[in-house]
C-alpha cells in the first residue's frame, strides 16, 4: 500500500487514538457493516472527545481490519476521531 499524506494522517490519528485510553471510549450497538467501503454504522451513547450526544452515525474504520469479527447487533466499546473532516473509528471491541 502506498502511503499518501492523507493516509499518513489517518494512520497517525489512529495510532494516537489507540494510545488514548478507555476514558475516551464510547459504547454502542453495531447497526450496519459495509466491509467493501470499510464503514460501520453505530448507534452510540455520547462520544465525549467529539462532543457528540447519543446518535446513530456512520464511521470509516481505520484500519479496515477493525471490522473483522463484528456483526450487526453486536454491543461494542469504541474510540473515534475526526480526521480531515471525516469521522473514523480507531479502535473497537465487542462487549460481552
UniProtKB/TrEMBL annotation:
Keywords: Signal. Residues 1-25 form the signal peptide. Transmembrane segments: none annotated. This is Copper-binding protein. The lineage of its organism: Bacteria, Pseudomonadati, Pseudomonadota, Betaproteobacteria, Burkholderiales.
